[in-house]
């Protein structure tokens, strides 16, 4: 099956979000198909996080439709959520819990029980390399480890779709490399929409890029097509956004 034939796992159709007269995003439409890793780029305040919150059902759109694996996230959010793993920027974690107690808590919330619960917790602990800190309070962990804990609980229920909002924000180069490696591995079996400010990550992990500027999609296409003129991605970012 080619990427064009694969089913759309993330769909934005005419999405807009208004706060009074202010439009956070306007008429945003795109699809991410099964098996794609798509980078979502734009300057601060362009509408990336708003779009992601609409796609996950965290916010309700003023107009338009958001779907995850075919489920309308305004009317069928529970079913859509079973297919989705969402890691918001600075996602909330309970600092007095350990990674193991947190994963047990979220496994119970997801309805995982018995052997499957045990297997999934052990699988995400290994996948996110949490063995060394599994019994330490989350509040005592480095930012890199906290980000890994967040990634682990997002993966517990084996979602088909991952929406990751600035997953490497605030990390040092070694931590960025570790998180990037985890995402690259996940991209072999998941559909991923990844928001980032680090342009090197785009070429390292994504096959396609979406640019958003002032609440509207400014570009949607292959990374290779965007950079085939030999100019670095940073130049294209500046050209496609409002940065002068």
Descriptive key words:
globular, 35% helix, Rossmann fold, 244 residues, four-stranded antiparallel sheet, 10 strands, alpha/beta, six-stranded mixed sheet
How are the SSEs ordered, and which strands pair?
Elements: E1 8-19, E2 22-33, E3 37-41, H1 48-56, E4 63-68, E5 71-72, H2 77-81, E6 84-87, H3 99-109, H4 114-127, H5 143-155, E7 161-165, H6 173-186, E8 191-195, H7 199-205, E9 208-213, E10 216-222, H8 223-227, H9 233-240
Parallel strand pairs: 3-8, 3-9, 6-7, 7-8
Antiparallel strand pairs: 1-2, 1-4, 4-5, 9-10
Helix pairs in contact: 3-4, 4-5
Give an account of the 3D structure.
- This protein is of the alpha/beta class and 244 residues long.
- It has two domains: 1-83 and 161-170 and 191-244, P-loop containing nucleotide triphosphate hydrolases (Rossmann fold, 3-Layer(aba) Sandwich), CATH 3.40.50.300; 91-158, no CATH class.
- Helices cover 35% and strands 26% of the residues.
- The protein has nine helices and ten strands.
- It has helices at residues 48-56, 77-81, 99-109, 114-127, 143-155, 173-186, 199-205, 223-227, 233-240; strands at residues 8-19, 22-33, 37-41, 63-68, 71-72, 84-87, 161-165, 191-195, 208-213, 216-222.
- It has a six-stranded mixed sheet, with helices on both faces.
- A hairpin with a 2-residue loop joins strand 1 (8-19) and strand 2.
- Helix 3 (99-109) packs across helix 4.
- The radius of gyration is 18 Å and the shape is globular.
- The mean pLDDT is 89.
